[in-house]
Write a structure and sequence with these properties.
Helix content is about 40%, strand content about 20%. By secondary structure, it is of the alpha+beta class. It folds into 2 domains: about 5-195 and about 380, 2-Layer Sandwich (Ribosomal Protein S5, domain 2); about 200-375, 2-Layer Sandwich (Alpha-Beta Plaits). Strand 3 (about 60-65) and strand 4 (about 75-80) form a beta hairpin. The longest helix has 22 residues, at about 265-285. The protein is globular, with a radius of gyration of 21 Å. The structure holds 2-deoxy-2-fluoro-alpha-D-galactopyranose. 2-deoxy-2-fluoro-alpha-D-galactopyranose binds near residues 169, 219 and 334. It is found in: Cytoplasm.
Length: about 375
């Protein structure tokens, strides 16, 4: 999606060129799933797929929104009428960001926006965070708000949690705002400290495939919230602020203390072991051994499937088929209940693995998956 194309369309829609054009990517989470709302570790990287926004300021308290990806014309909203709750369509993401900025005291007096995104929606690849971050960055630059990195991500998360009503953590918005090309982002979601970890698989003869199962998911639905509530119950029963506070070598003792809290035990086990898997992955990558992260990814999938119980038959089929075909590791990525899986493989095996996953889906009677290679790409930035 070219910046010029988006700017040209903006000019057609609104009668004048935009003040600027910005981009914010979707993400793949390499490892660290459902740890972000437990103050834990995550390790996403940015996709080349991105939301692009052409934006100009307005001074009359009006927000006009248009998307190249959705049927329909321009949506016009009054800023003083923006309020959380109610039924929302795609406009809730940009409108929620404007609401969150104003709620935080930032003076935003209106905007004209034209958006176009290449991030697949409902695929666990953070299409909504990309929309939020691209708008936040554009308004930050145009209104000179002085927001950057995780501060920008926090506001976007607030838009998602309160305005849209999805009780998500902060990983996706931080990934979109802060990732760098050729790197994965090691993020501590407790203090939001970050480290860029070099992650150039191509140089090692490796590839990371994304398999979008085409099973759509949504986090404003109840299951995500139930997992989050279960984790918070676990932390309360254990007398800690968040499950992050349970060290890996204290897991057995913590599980013993939980006794017969059967609904909470597997959730706690997942979060504590997943944090350890993120730390192990970072250590292996820093030691220059990317092939060795394969089994760690696969362990992560088993934990999400068996303990956190958020996989689905399509995701499990990707993982099982890829591993049987010689992949180094595979797991679901993102919030779960559908969406995408990732497969770490030798470059030479990519075609065969892709074919075997496609054949397995056809044999199971599932909708054909969409398979593409993920290259760690740039985070949000101004294009024009
Ligand atoms: C979704 C959420 F938006 C993230 O905050 C995170 O919890 C993820 O699911 C699971 O790791 O993408």
């Amino acid at each position: 999606m070219g910046a010029q194309q988006v700017a040209d369309r903006f000019a057609e829609l609104y009668g004048a060129p935009p003040e600027g054009v910005w981009a914010a990517p979707g993400r793949v989470n390499l490892i660290g799933e459902h740890t972000d709302y437990n103050d834990g570790f995550v390790m996403p990287f940015a996709l080349p797929h991105q939301a692009v926004a052409a934006v100009s300021r307005r001074t009359d308290g009006v927000l006009r929104l248009h998307s190249a990806d959705v049927e329909g014309g321009i949506t016009e909203l009054r800023l003083d009428g923006l309020a959380p709750g109610g039924d929302h369509d795609w406009t809730a993401y940009p409108a929620g960001v404007v609401w969150a900025l104003r709620e935080a005291g930032h003076e935003v007096t209106g905007a004209d926006v034209h958006l176009a995104s290449t991030v697949p929606t409902g695929a666990g690849l953070s299409s909504s965070a990309a929309l939020e971050v691209v708008i936040a960055l554009a308004l930050n630059d145009l209104y000179d708000l002085g927001l950057k990195g995780w501060r920008l991500a926090r506001l976007c998360q607030r838009a998602e949690n309160v305005y849209v009503g999805a009780p998500t953590g902060i990983m996706d918005q931080t990934a979109s705002a802060c990732c760098e090309a050729g790197h994965a982002l090691f993020l501590d979601t407790r203090d939001l400290s970050q480290r860029q970890i070099p992650f150039d698989l191509a140089a090692e003869g490796l590839r990371l495939l994304v398999v979008d199962t085409q099973v759509k998911h949504a986090h404003s639905g109840g299951e995500y919230g139930k997992r989050r509530a279960g984790c918070e119950k676990g932390a309360a029963l254990l007398g800690v602020d968040a499950l992050r506070d349970i060290p890996y070598d204290g897991l057995d003792a913590a599980l013993a203390r939980l006794g017969d809290e059967a609904d909470v035990v597997p959730l706690v086990r997942h979060v504590v072991t997943e944090n350890e898997r993120v730390e192990r992955t970072v250590a292996l990558l820093r030691a220059g051994d990317p092939r060795a992260i394969g089994p760690v990814l696969t362990e992560g999938h088993a934990s999400l499937r068996d303990d956190f119980r958020i996989s689905c038959p399509e995701l499990d089929l990707v993982v099982d088929t890829a591993l049987a075909g010689g992949a180094l590791g595979a797991r679901m990525t993102g919030g779960g209940f559908g969406g995408s899986a990732i497969v770490l493989a030798e470059a030479a095996d990519v075609d065969t693995l892709t074919k075997s996953v496609e054949e397995a889906f056809a044999a199971a009677g599932f909708t054909a998956p969409r398979v593409f290679e993920a290259v760690p790409s740039a985070g949000a930035r101004r294009l024009v």
